[in-house]
């Protein structure tokens, strides 16, 4: 969806501006061009110590790093058609908090331990002079661990964390006693503390990952100036986090478009290629092809209206 599009297109645009850019994602699959770096780290998750490996590929100026652990890989293994976030829509996997805690901790380790030399402009580990951009609730623990674990040790002293909200409706609300799973000091409890009127996953008092991500990061961002206004306009539009966002402030930066991926001259999904000079000739032909494919009357004079948006209950 939109988050995938941003993580695909924004990093190469930042790299083109001269930044050294790394993305860190779970390794949900055997990505064919991502190779084992053979770098492993041990991380405390819940009451266990887990070992993760880092896989890596370099594309369009970006270090793409994948966190390898059975918690990620076994969920989507083979042809089980398992979902990434839960067994069915709207249901979390039981171990989601552990999985995403693992991702956040691995993301904090990666810039210091991975010795990456794919770029002709940069070599070696990224080091500590970095900005972390955490996207949506799954990565909301990153600014918390940065403050709780690293800064007191004098590590990442100048590093900053931005938290970007792509969809306020999904916040990572869990049972309040689950705070213990996160291995954070008690002074972080208030940042997670959240009360709503819903029975799921438990009644009454909960923890809310997104609330903590908003409060503990240095900057809160979202995907357009209009969405930023919308999120603070009412409790309904801000899905009960509007007051928190008013307190921290939020900046909307409109999602751009990856002009390499969405280039009609090189689009492998269309039969007729076009650019600005041939668009008027190409579009009627493409419209007829679309009409034929979806079983509409083929008529170049009938308008076809496309809508890109969310389709959910």
Would you write up a description of this structure?
The chain is an alpha/beta fold and 313 residues long. The chain folds into two domains: 2-252, Rossmann fold, CATH 3.40.50; 263-312, no CATH class. 28% of the residues lie in helices and 20% in strands. The protein is built from nine helices and eleven strands. The chain has helices at residues 2-16, 70-73, 96-113, 141-150, 189-192, 209-216, 225-231, 242-248, 279-294, and strands at residues 21-26, 35-45, 48-59, 62-68, 131-135, 160-165, 173-175, 193-195, 205-208, 219-222, 251-252. The strands form three sheets. The chain has a four-stranded mixed beta sheet, sandwiched between helices. Strand 5 (131-135), helix 4 (141-150) and strand 6 form a beta-alpha-beta unit. Helix 3 crosses helix 4 (141-150) and helix 4 (141-150) crosses helix 6. It is globular, with a radius of gyration of 22 Å. The two termini are 17 Å apart. The mean pLDDT is 94.
The neighbouring-strand order within the major sheet is 1-4-3-2
CATH superfamily of the largest domain: Glycogen Phosphorylase B
Which regions are unreliable across 5 or more consecutive residues at pLDDT < 50?
A: none
Please tally the helical runs, counting DSSP H or I stretches of 4 or more residues: 9
* Rg for CA atoms: 22 Å
Number of strands: 11
Helix-strand pattern, N to C?
HEEEEHHEHEEHEEHEHHEH
CATH architecture term of the largest domain: 3-Layer(aba) Sandwich
What do the pLDDT scores average to?
94
Strand content: 15-25%
End-to-end CA span: 17 Å
Taken from the alpha-carbon principal axes, the silhouette is globular
Q: Look up the CATH topology of the largest domain.
A: Rossmann fold
The domain count comes to 2
GO molecular function, one term: glycosyltransferase activity
Pfam families: Glyco_transf_5
Organism: Eriobotrya japonica
GO biological process, one term: starch biosynthetic process
């Amino acid at each position: 969806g939109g988050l995938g599009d941003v993580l695909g297109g924004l990093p190469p645009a930042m790299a083109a501006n001269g930044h050294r850019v790394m993305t860190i994602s779970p390794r949900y699959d055997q990505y064919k061009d991502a190779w084992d770096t053979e770098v492993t780290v041990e991380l405390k998750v819940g009451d266990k110590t887990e070992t993760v490996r880092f896989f890596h590929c370099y594309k369009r100026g970006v270090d793409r790093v994948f966190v390898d652990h059975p918690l990620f890989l076994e969920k989507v293994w083979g042809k089980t058609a398992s979902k990434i976030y839960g067994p069915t829509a709207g249901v979390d996997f039981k171990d989601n908090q552990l999985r995403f805690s693992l991702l956040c901790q691995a993301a904090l380790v990666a810039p210091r331990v991975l010795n990456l030399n794919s770029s002709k402009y940069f070599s070696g580990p990224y080091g500590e002079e970095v900005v972390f951009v955490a996207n949506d609730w799954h990565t909301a623990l990153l600014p918390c661990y940065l403050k709780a674990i690293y800064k007191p040790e004098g590590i990442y002293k100048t590093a900053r964390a931005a938290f970007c909200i792509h969809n306020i409706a999904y916040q990572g609300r869990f049972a309040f006693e689950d705070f213990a799973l996160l291995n954070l000091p008690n002074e972080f409890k208030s940042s997670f503390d959240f009360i709503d009127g819903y029975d799921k996953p438990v009644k009454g008092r909960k923890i809310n990952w997104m609330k903590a991500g908003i409060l503990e990061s240095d900057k809160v961002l979202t995907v357009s100036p209009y969405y930023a206004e919308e999120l603070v306009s009412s409790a309904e539009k801000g899905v009960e986090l509007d007051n928190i966002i008013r307190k921290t402030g939020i900046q909307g930066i409109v999602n751009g478009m990856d002009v390499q991926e969405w280039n009609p001259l090189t689009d492998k999904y269309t039969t007729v290629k076009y650019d600005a000079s041939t668009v008027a000739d190409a579009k009627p032909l493409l419209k007829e092809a679309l009409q034929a494919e979806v079983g509409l009357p083929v008529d170049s004079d009938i308008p076809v209206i496309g809508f890109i948006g969310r389709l959910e209950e």
